[in-house]
Amino acid sequence: MAPKLAVLGALAQDEHLTRAAERAGVPQPTASRWLTDLSEELGTPILVRDGRRIRLTRAGKLLAEAAERSMNALEAGLRQVEEEVDPERGRVVLGFLHMLGRSVVPELVRGFRQEHPHVRFGLVQNSRQAVTELLARGEVDLALVAPPPEGDEFESRVVFEQELIVIVPSTHRLAGSTQVRLEELAGDDFIVLEHGYGLRQIHDELCARAGFTPKIAFESQEIETVRGLVAAGLGVALLTHAELTPPQGLVELPLTPRTSRRFGLAWRRDHPLPPAVRNFRDYALRA
To answer: Helix or strand or coil: residue 32?
Structure first.
């Protein structure tokens, strides 16, 4: 049945029997016979002639749509089988936070591909909430987020931590301090990431623990935008150390007590990982 459906799917693209047969890799008489067989099995025509071309009937179009879905599922199954047979040529789909795209993820992928040069990667960057949802739906194999996702459907391991600091404008009253307690900023305007980002969740939890509700002046989707707004004197922020030289006009202050955010690599608990994905997970947990 699969070869017949492949011919039908190819025919649906431009309704040209010769090209459909070529794409399916079968002789045209064979393709024509298969389509006739499908019509007989269904008990209704699936194509009609329209001049020199062939046009799918409504039943034929419905069957072609179902054929496309079936072929997509078959291709996904073939991919899993191929990876099971040859994990060195598998594919890993990794979801991660935007901020990890500068160095962390490239270094992980570079190191892994030195050992497994033919493994392919799909890289998906988004907020913690979005990446976690993609993981739950099976659209990414692994998720590198902070904090690690909760829930019985996930399993995760902490792979590294980053110290959290406060950044303030260079004109701020605390700019000359050697360290700062978060509650000292209770009256300041805060610049934060939007809800759905892991750092926003951590920020709100730490402020609640410090006994105050922060005054939110700006919400952003990018950490570098937050830094720029702080440097412009528009508020303060809770971030991690800048990987590059931070913009002029701001000061990084250590928090006391020292606080950090944990990055975890997560996967779905009850879904066996393809070998290539499992190999990359194990490498990342060792790195």
So the answer is: helix
H-assigned helices in the chain? 2-14, 17-24, 28-42, 58-85, 104-115, 128-136, 198-210, 223-231, 275-286
Radius of gyration of the chain measured on its C-alpha atoms: 27
And the tokens for 257?
């007590």
DSSP of 53-68? EEEE-HHHHHHHHHHH
Helix axes 2-14, 58-85, angle to 10 degrees: 120
Successive 10-residue mean pLDDT values, the chain, 287 residues: 68 70 75 76 77 74 77 73 74 92 93 94 94 94 93 93 94 95 96 91 94 96 92 95 82 94 94 90 94
Burial of 15 (0-12, 13-18, 19+ CB in 10 A): middle
CB contact at 8 A, 202 and 264: no
pTM above 0.70, yes or no: no
